[in-house]
Amino acid sequence: MALPRRTTTTTLTAVVVLLTLGFPGAPAHADDDPSAPPGSVTTSPPPEVDATSPGLKLADGATLAPAKVLDIKSVVEDLGGEERREDTNSDVTFALQAEVLFPKDSSKLNPDARSRIQAIADEIKAQNATTVRVFGFTDNLGSYAHGLTLSKKRAEAVHDQLASALGSTDITFEVRGYSEDYPIADNTSEQGRRKNRRVEVTFPRGASSGGTQS
């Protein structure tokens, strides 16, 4: 699906199997991404690795930590950062800045928002997705409670338009508002706050889907 207007950088991170050497008494390390909202992270089962394989050439006393698969991730956004598409091997996420969807401090969709949401609905259909997450976020200005209400109402507005565009009763939606939680940019600048004021739509990639689209 074509993003509106221009695109800039595509970042690709290859699939990696982490085979970390673990020594007796070494502490375990968790590197979960705290910026990802609950329920929005999916992982594929890691491949089985034979810890006794002579080809590993482990040092005496060393063992393998559990294997971990890092998703292939491609990110494409327009020059203004108004819309971003992120593809992994399991999910597609569209992030739309609030300014392109709503008037200031409002949850009423503007006329231009409908065409952007329709494009996302078309991609949901193309991927044959049956589950869709719609999450709303704000910056850190104003009270947390106000942001929670506003982000939820904005997510609900996008959900309503998506559901209408999809015209299907076979899709399960999860709709949440997170206020200023899970920022993706620095809230100390207006540029960062603009990125944090957003609605994200996430759905699984179709099993028969080809390469990343832009």
Overview of this structure, please?
The chain is of the alpha+beta class and 214 residues long. The protein is 21% helix and 23% strand. It has helices at 111-126, 144-166, 190-196, and strands at 11-13, 16-17, 21-22, 63-64, 69-70, 73-77, 83-88, 91-97, 131-137, 172-177, 198-204. The strands form three sheets. The chain has a seven-stranded mixed β-sheet with strand order 1-6-7-8-11-9-10. It has a two-stranded antiparallel sheet with strand order 2-5. Strand 6 (73-77) and strand 7 (83-88) form a beta hairpin. It is globular, with a radius of gyration of 20 Å. Mean pLDDT is 78; it is low at 1-34 and 208-214.
**Strand arrangement, major sheet:** 1-6-7-8-11-9-10
Mean pLDDT, to the nearest integer, reads: 78
Low-confidence stretches: 1-34, 208-214
Radius of gyration: 20 Å
Query: What overall geometry do the principal axes of the alpha carbons give?
Result: globular
Counting H and I runs of at least 4 residues, what is the number of helices?
Answer: 3
Number of strands: 11
Largest sheet: 7 strands, mixed
Q: H/E series, N to C?
A: EEEEEEEEHEHEHE
Helix content: 10-25%
Structural class: alpha+beta
First and last CA, distance: 6 Å
Q: Which strand-content bin applies to the residues?
A: 15-25%
